[in-house]
Amino acid sequence: MMRIPSWYCIGMLMWTGAAAAAQGQSALPTRVALGAQQAPLARSEPAAPATLHGVVTDASGKPLPGVFVSALGSDSAFAVSDDEGRFTFRELSPGEYLLRARLRGYLQQRERVVQVSAGGQRAPALHLTRSLEAGVVTASVGGGGTTTVAEPGEDEDQHGHDEVAWRLRHARRSVLKEAGQAIEGLGEESSYGGSLASLSRAVGTPARLASAFFAELPLSAQIHLLTTASFERPEDLFSSATTAPHGVAYLSVEAPGASGQWTVRGALTQGDLSSWLLAGSYVKQGPAAHLYEVGLSYGIQRYLGANGEALAAIRDGGRNVGVMYAYDDWTVSPHLEVGYGAKYARYDYLEEPWLLSPRVSVAVRPSMRDSLRLRGTVSHREIAPGAEEFMPPSFGPWLPPERTFSHVSRASFRPEQHDYLELAMEREWAGGVTVGVRGFTERVDDQLVTLFGVDDSQRGLGHYQVGSAGDYAANGWGVSVRRDVGSHVTATVDYSRARAEWQRVSADAETLALLATSVLREDEAIHDLTASVQGVVAPTATRVLVIYKVNSGFAQQLAEVDPSSGVRFDVQVNQALPFMNFTSGRWEMLVAVSNLFREDLAELSTYDELMVVRPPKRVVGGVTVRF
What's CA 432's distance to the chain center, in Å? Predict the structure, then answer.
């Protein structure tokens, strides 16, 4: 059971009472970032004050309402034109955007590429013309050979619009039809001509519906063609000490709608480690009382290499992981917001494969005239060893499983159990500065340990070992400061201090003492300072993300070395390639270098990143096409 200090309970009761008495005039913004559990570092977005507006007309200049307009560039934005054909995109990141307009029965004359800068600006008018398929050629009934053109919707249920239906309608009519005689055995309603019409509907209608569905569905997509490799020192990139670079193909398809957005993502890599990931999600869009997100993912890892330890650890040559999740942000009143949800996962390499991770949070805004927000969060996480190889990241390059792992003492894999309670407050001040303060307590059973190359540096880049350091309880506090620097850059600094008390040493302690004794801890204080910068260079449409983490308790490689201060980092650069926009797609170049093992800093225990010994640096490069 978690040991929760009394001041946490008192604080939670006070906040619950304030929430019950709160009455207000406007809704709380969703997903308020407070403390480490809300990922102020990894998920904060740069300021985006740019606004783009325009109008959609037909060939004669008449405004067209109900047109779906998309803007693809640094961001993906969508709007629907009003009765006067006008549309508006707000909060766009500066840069180049490709504008597209879609309306059933119409074609866009020309796709527009516009440069969006800070402030508001007008887009060139978008012109649509009627599609050639809007009219349907039908045969006259009188047999005179004349034809008429039917407008869309006319006789829609009686005539198919594909080639097969057209040929059936223009085929020579039999004397049986002219005499009005029915074909024997088909009944009065199934004469020769009637059977042709039925066949036309049977063949034409499904094909027409399918083609219309995909033609009118407002889809946008991204294709990433990447190459990734791992190294320890920069000079290793030019030697055999690095892992062999391998390619990764990634595809993302989004289908936005009026009430929410569907997203499907997939990634594939081949080599001695062949693997793929597939994920789908649906996100409800506001304004609404319930803003929910549901999704699932499935990943497979198969190893065909020569590493005997990896072959022995992987059952039947492969591993399979499936995850389902659902979260909801419920705005009860303008002063009160409740978040709840859970993640349910199955790891086939665990003895007990099913893991459940629920989470509940309560956010209170005491006064609508003040930006002060209070939040309480309670969560339980069950983390499988090697889970980071199968879980889609919340940001950054999306890579399928590319490393193998085994147990350090050849025992069964044990998941980490993480119970967490946090109380936090956040307030915005003058000058675009947001300050947050939090207090937290946590209890962890079977804290995970990850070892890279402690006995074989060559193998360690593509294979690692996992184990358990034992159980501990920790209490601590933290302070975060976030500021918008200019109109395109957001900087965040987060400091935390935790006091940990170790309560049980795991069964892996004897083996870990021989490989990296610094993962076996005693009671200690941990200091962490993490800084991040996110920004967009407007003239060149360059997006930059830098995360720099300094901590006093990183585990060391050698057995005789105690934990010490160290640095981990993540740098990502996306550069638009304007000279490549010779098609309807938008091209970008991606370069990323990181030695952070855990990708989502928002849901980590105090020791999750600290217990990763000798993590290699990973470099990712390639191109991205958005269309």
Answer: 27
